[in-house]
Design goal:
Number of strands: 2
Largest sheet: 2 strands, antiparallel
Structural class: mainly alpha
Strand content: under 5%
Distance between the termini: 59 Å
Length: 94
């Protein structure tokens, strides 16, 4: 069971402004939610396999194949400094 003090504290932490007349309504709703969670905690779930997804969805994967040609030399022709197929950059950490 939650109290109006709990609702005010949660609203403050969430940076939500509540009027004083709304606090009893939110207290009632929060109590209902916590009661539902308590009911769910009482359910025996032994032997139940956890689900990764509520639907039996299968990831559509595309074949792993190369579709582009190697253009490294073309791209490195624009680089300021290249050596042995690698981009040379200034040293940042000493």
């Amino acid at each position: 069971m939650s109290s109006s003090c709990d609702v005010e504290k949660i609203a403050h932490l969430a940076r939500i402004s509540l009027s004083t007349q709304d606090i009893p309504l939110y207290t009632h709703h929060l109590s209902n939610i916590l009661d539902l969670v308590e009911q769910m905690n009482c359910i025996d779930t032994t032997g139940i396999t956890p689900m990764a997804h509520p639907l039996d969805a299968v990831a559509r994967l595309r074949p792993d194949c190369v579709k582009e040609t190697n253009q490294r030399e073309h791209f490195q022709s624009n680089a300021p400094q290249v050596e042995a197929g690698l981009y040379l950059v200034p040293k940042v950490i000493e």
